Amino acid sequence: MAEKKAFVTGHPIAHSRSPKIHGYWLAQYGIDGSYEAIDVAPDDFASFLKALGDNGFRGGNVTIPHKEAAFAGVARRDHAADAIGAVNTLWFEEGVLWGGNTDGYGFAANLDQYAPGWAANGPAVVLGAGGASRAVIHALKERAVRDIRIVNRTLARAEELGRHFGASVHGADALGELLGDAGLLINTTSLGMHGNETLAADPGALPDHAIVTDIVYVPLETPLLAAARARGLKTVDGLGMLLHQAVPGFERWFGRKPDVTPELRSMIVADIEGH
C-alpha cells in the first residue's frame, strides 16, 4: 500500500513546527506516512493545489500567506472555513478537494484542556481584528459565549468583524472599562511576541475569576500572561492552540485521531527554547 503523504505549505515555511508535530504522531502510532514542509510562492499556489492529487497527497496544511487563496481555490468548504474566511486544512473526499479551518477548534480545545468550563466565564474581550481573531470569535460563538467585545485600534476592520459575527466593537481607548466585568481576555495581536514586548492590555482591571489567554506562543509566557499570573489570574498560553489545531487534519489524512500529550508539548517547548 502506498505511503500516506501530507504537507504544510507557506512562504516562507522553514519556521513551521507542523512537521515536528505530525512526525511525532506518525512515529508514535507506527503509521507509514510522511508530512513535509513545501515552500510555494503565491504565484505558484493555484497550480500547486491543482496537482495535489496527482502528486499523491491526501491533503495538508496551509499557512501564511496562502489561507485566503486556499479558501478561494478549493471545491468545497466546511462551516468553520466559511465563517472564518480562510482555509488552513485540505483533504480529499471522493476525489473532491475540501478546505477546512481548524484554528477555532484548536483555540477551544486548548482552553478545554487547561481551563475547563471557560465558555461559561464570559463576557469575552478579544484584542485585535486580524485573521486569528476571526477564528477565535468563531470558536466563542460556537461555544455560546454571547457577549463578545472586539477591541482594535482600527475601528473599520473591527466593524467588519462585528457585522459578520454579531459582536460589539470598540476602540482601544475603551479597553479599561470593558475589562471590569470580563471573564475572558484573549490577545490575538502580535503584541508580546519576541521583539515586540509591549503589554497587549493591563489585566489589572479584570475581575478575580477572569481567564487570560494569548495566541502568541513565542515566548510561551508573553508580557500579558506574566502580568495576569502576577495578579493571580488563570492563564493559558498559545502553544496548545497550535498543537490542537493539528489534530483534525492528522485524523483525516492518516486515519487516527492523535492525542496532544505532555511529551509532545515538551518536545515543541524544547524546540522553541532552542531557537
From TrEMBL:
Record field: transmembrane: none
Residues the record lists as binding shikimate: 16-18, 63, 88, 103, 217, 245
UniProt GO MF annotations: shikimate 3-dehydrogenase (NADP+) activity
Domain Quinate/shikimate 5-dehydrogenase/glutamyl-tRNA reductase: 124-190
Quaternary structure and interacting proteins, as annotated: Homodimer.
Catalytic activity from the UniProt record: shikimate + NADP(+) = 3-dehydroshikimate + NADPH + H(+)
Record-stated family: Belongs to the shikimate dehydrogenase family.
Binding of NADP(+), residues: 128-132, 152-157, 215, 238
Catalytic residues in the record: 67
EC number annotated for this UniProt entry: 1.1.1.25
Protein name: Shikimate dehydrogenase (NADP(+))
